[in-house]
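Support reply, case 0932

Customer input (verbatim):
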Amino acid sequence: MAKVSVKAELSGEKFLTKVTAGNHTIYTDEPIDKGGEDKGVNPLELLASSLATCTAATLKMYVELKQWKVPTIDVEVILENNNKSGEALFERSISFGDTNLTEDQQKRLLSIAERCPIHKLLHGKIEVITEIL
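Our regenerated output:
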């Protein structure tokens, strides 16, 4: 089981949040229409980014293993979130630039995309445990 630790620190500016994961730091913010200053990606964009980047990396590992000539992997994720119903829709589009892939290769890559760890996590059982320190 993989385990990661991420810390979010919000202080000073209204919604600008410093996110630290290991040796890396990113900033998130809320859009202007939600009271933020749009100085970083918003939490939904960050979630969609997780699926997009994991998909791209998983596909890259596979094409390297197969030694296929695929110089470009583009993954776009559109996330629609309905707060009222609690439902979300992820639309994922994958392209490989000018690479000429056979139909069998495309089917295989689609199958590999479905095995991306974030994709599997989103389809699995999710539990959130929260405590106040």
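We compared this against your earlier run and they match. Two observations from our side: The chain has three helices and five strands. The first strand starts at residue 6 and ends at 10. Please reopen the case if you see a mismatch on your end.
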